[in-house]
Amino acid sequence: MAFNVTRRKFLQTASLAAVSIPLSKVVCAETGVTKASLEPKGTMNDTTVVGGLCEMCFWRCQMVGKVRDGQLIKLEGNPKSIDNGTSICARGNAGIKLLYDVDRLKYPLKNVGKRGEPVWKRISWQEALDECGSKLKAVVDQHGPQGICVFPHGASAKYPMHYFERTVGTHNVSEASFFQCRGVRDTAYMATINEAPEEYVDMANAKVIFLVGCHFGENIHVSHTKTYIKGLQNGAKLIVADPRYSASAAKSDIWVQIKPGTDTAYLLAIMNYLVQNKKYNQEFVTNHTVGFDKFSQSIADWTLDKAAKECEIPAAQIKEVADLLAANAPNVTIHPGRFSSWYGNDFQRGRALACLTALLGAYYVKGGWLPPKKPKLNKTSWAAAEHGNEHNLNFNNDKMHHPYAPPGTPTELIRDCAISGKPYPIKGCVVWGQNPMQTIPNQEKMKQVFKAMDFVMCVDVMPTDVTMWADILLPEASYLERFDEIKVGATYAKAGDTEPTQYIAPRYPMVEAQFERKDQVYITNEIAKRMGHEQDIPVQTLEELVNKTLEVSKTTLASIKAEGGIHLQPGKPAGAVPEDFMVQLFSDEIAAAGFPGAPTYIPVENVPAGHARLLFGRAPVHSFSRTQNNIWLHHAMPVNPVWLNNEVAAKLGLKEGDTVGFINSEGVKSRTTTIVKVTPGIRKDCVYMYHGYGMVNPMLSVCGGKGVDEQSLITKIAIDPESGVHGMRNNFVRLTKDGKTLDMPA
Amino acid sequence: MSETSTSQDLSFFYRFLARCMQYPDPQWMNEDFFQAFFNLVETLGANAEGKEIQVALEQSPDPIEALQIEYTRLFINGAPHVVAPPYASVYMDKSLQGAFALKTLSFYRAKGFAMEKDADLPDHLIHELEFLSLLAQENDLAGEEEFLTTLFRPWYKQFCPRVGQETRHPYYRMVVNLIDFFTTEEKKNGFQCNEA
Fold first, then answer.
1. How deeply is A499 buried, as exposed, middle or buried, from its count of CB atoms within 10 A (0-12, 13-18, 19+)?
2. What's CA A728's distance to the chain center, in Å?
3. For residues A246 and A171, what is the distance between their CA atoms, to the nearest angstrom?
4. Which end of chain A is less crowded, N or C, counting CB atoms within 10 A of the terminal residue's CB?
5. Which of A308, A324, A359 delimits the end of a domain?
């Protein structure tokens, strides 16, 4: 830049005022920095703020925040917590880096470019809300409420989800936590024991802990991990069925290196062995199960040898596991798992886990499935309303496509309808806290959905991949900047307690929301006003929502804050098996719906020649793609190496640290590369990666393009027939190196 | 010319530069603003660059929107990614609101200033320019020099070239260079550090 004077000379010129005076007339009258009273040096204004409720994952650990001059400088477990205690995990600690992430969304943005190739312009909230309200209303006016689809995820998405579902009246809501995660587990258990199992297993007091696919240590929920470790410290035997030598397998007494997709066959053989050898809990089966005879007959051909062949594990090991479980029953944990969108045969798998628990009599006993008695809360939200099933895509005349679907509509039904326009057009899309580009398989299909829309709005804290498809992008206050949902539970507060203690822990903001970030109640209400639903608004503020939810507990945000952010009260012991508790070993209802009445193994596609099955799971320092841009967590685990069996690696000429890409069996190539982790700890027919990496949005300056997005390689869609939930381990890949495709050895 | 009046003039320059860095809005980014802006540019002899800006503004069907899009891309959220967040901590701590922002706030306080409730973060470029303007108004030359040396130049020298190289609009190249010009003390031989 060529200025023809130096600053000094310029400031010495006689004509300086002639330049400065016109400037003085166009400057802003107010300044953000203003005169104030002098404060002594060293004043830090340090405070400890109570009532934090973590959302770096969804376990909701309770925290306190150390705040200095309005800046959150440290997060710690709340000393009053009887759940996670003073512990929080790596992600919990790194919440600060989410709060102050440079890339975070700060202001409402309008896409003045193309959908998918955005050119962003900052706009006012007024303009943003007017546009969202008018565009969504136009969709409803033209196509009906079913013309809107919603992809919500996380605590803040519940209020807007209820608005669109209940008040606007669309069925087309697909929550990732159900349809791409744990929904099928819940509906399988609902169909079997009439309750969602959560993770109510008393591992601390178990004599045996049986994990099928769970990988604790890599999947970390603090209090759950603590009870797991406590169980191991107390001498529990650990059985882990996993094709990979996971963090849990590394602590196991028996590692079952099972063939992927065959869990149900394995469980059937264990159950058949228990039945045939009368090693099941006959009293429990007599008093608390239905359909034992039909169930026994149905699984009778699952001998140890048959399962050994199908699962590619030794028959003797299946027997060893079954005997160990039987010998220690009923104090055994048959873990229901959490993520369960495995292979598209997962309803039956969930049923098998629930039935095995029954055969062992491991419901409502120490060490078994033992649901706590939690404090009650009100359910405050938009008023429930009945909208009929005329536009419910899951209904086919009077029959349901997927009768055991979790709440909402199965994702694939929504996507097919949006793309084809049949049976009706879907033209408006609301994405709230979910990143469907990385949670839902087949990214190209997801892009087609967005292209088919008249209007797409996204609400998020970060510019995740899906936000590139928004027309309007709204910045949300993070979990550290808002009031919000309440965690309740019951546990033994300290060693030696004979009665559990209940806790109520609402979320309080640790700091004020910065820039122009707003919470879900504000955003939803403003859109509702513009869509003609002002009279239906249930609460005016998020604070009011929480207080109304607390009413039944006779607590308030103010009273709990005064107690240190957590209210404790005497609890009630979990108690014995309720008399009416019945386990549907064989379910006539499921059979009448056209599905197997007893747990049944449905084989999945075998690995085609030259390929390996693509497996993925959670990284201990990340929650999916949500935390990838967090600079602390990124440094801890910057890429997701691909686990490759050592013998396979030797045949392919690959060594630890080599850079590779992928091509799947349908010809889709990975956009990026990663490095190889050579290990004997994985079967030869599989490769494994941590999920959530390789995000494409270049607005993510830390993580964009780092590691491989395994979801981009999941293009073959498997749907669990009973639930409509996705199965995501049925895709096959070959590795690529230096432009060459490497055939995986048989 | 007295030191005091120079300082008062400098105060206006800082305030004007702070104005230049605000999100473009036709309410203030009007004819009077551009007249003052081009007058300054011309006085400094950057006629070619001034002409380039005028052409860019004239050729755009909506010149203010073009500047809003560029501002968003450069300083808020943009693709491929936000080019140059205008916060000191981003360069010094690799984070928003890091320790450097606290140091900046402490400096304001030590000089008897504080942040307004609705203000941006204390280490935002606009507020640092406002603060320099206030120091100049009080004729606190030593304070101004100390702030520039210890808290402003260390990050601004990273920020300025980033904007200069990456911007797609000559207006912002000029703005960051004007800020550079007014915040860079000459070496003893009388030349700017970054003389082009």
1. exposed
2. 14
3. 39
4. C
5. A359
A422 and A343 inside one domain: no
Task: Give the DSSP per-residue string, A195-236.
Answer: S--TT-B-GGG-SEEEEES--BTTB--HHHHHHHHHHHHTT-
**What is the tens place of the pLDDT at every residue in A102-136?**
889 999 999 999 999 999 999 999 999 999 999 99
Same domain? For A726 and A644 the reply is yes
pLDDT at A1: 62
Q: Looking at the partner chain, which of B19, B130, B182 has a beta carbon nearest the beta carbon of A26?
A: B19
pLDDT band with cut points at 50, 70 and 90 for residue B6: confident
3-state SS assignment for residue B100: helix
Q: pLDDT tens digits, residue range B166-177?
A: 999 999 999 999
Peptide bond into A509 cis (omega under 30): no
For residue A38, what pLDDT is reported?
Answer: 72
CATH number at residue A355: 3.40.228.10
- Domain range spanning residue A453? 109-172+383-477+524-554
Q: Do B102 and A1 touch (CB under 8 A)?
A: no
Main-chain dihedrals φ then ψ at residue A493, nearest 5 degrees: -65, -35
Pick out chain A residues at pLDDT < 70: 1-2, 14, 39-43, 698-701
Q: Do B18 and A31 touch (CB under 8 A)?
A: yes
Give the pairing type, strands A395-396 and A332-334: unpaired
CATH assignment of the domain containing A664: 2.40.40.20
Q: Is B61 exposed, middle or buried (0-12, 13-18, 19+ CB in 10 A)?
A: exposed
pLDDT value of position A334 = 98
Residue A114 β-bridge partners: A117
Return the axis-axis angle of helices B170-183 and B47-59, rounded to nearest 10°.
150
Whether the complex's predicted ipTM surpasses the cut of 0.90: no
Q: Check the CA dihedral A555-A558-A563-A567 and report its sign.
A: positive
- pLDDT of A43: 65
CB within 8 Å of chain A, chain B residues 88-107: 90, 94-98, 101-102, 105-106
User: Does residue A88 fall inside a structural domain?
Assistant: no
Separation CA A726–CA A553 (nearest Å): 38
Instruction: Give yes or no for residue B195 having a pLDDT over 70.
Output: no
Q: How far is B177 from chain A (nearest CA, A)?
A: 7
Number of structural domains in chain A: 3
Residue A329 sits in the same domain as residue A434: no
- Per domain, the residue ranges of chain B are 3-183
List the alpha helices (DSSP H) in A588-645: 588-592, 631-636
State yes or no: pLDDT of B191 exceeds 60: no
Question: Model-level pTM?
Answer: 0.91
Rounded to the nearest 10°, the torsion over CA A374, A376, A380, A383 is: 100
CB-CB neighbors (< 8 A) of A20 in chain B: 9, 12-13
Nearest residue of B to residue A630, measured between CA atoms: B95
Q: Dig out the tokens for A328 from the structure.
A: 């220690």
CA nearest to B160 within chain A: A1
Helices B170-183, B125-137: crossing angle, 10 deg rounding: 40
Mean pLDDT of B10-38: 95
Res B192 pLDDT > 50: no
Residue B34 at interface with chain A, using a CB cutoff of 8 Å: no
Q: Kindly identify which residue of chain B lies nearest to residue A26, measuring between CA atoms.
A: B33
Largest CA distance in chain A: 106
Confirm or reject contact between A6 and chain B (CB < 8 A).
Answer: yes
Give the tens place of pLDDT for each residue, A17-52: 778 788 888 888 889 999 887 766 666 778 999 999
Q: A495 in contact with B at a CB cutoff of 8 Å?
A: no
> Was domain B3-183 assigned CATH 1.10.3480.10?
yes
By Cβ distance, the residue of A12, A101, A699 closest to B1 is A12
Phi and psi at residue A68, to the nearest 5°: -125, 120
Tell me A669's DSSP state. B
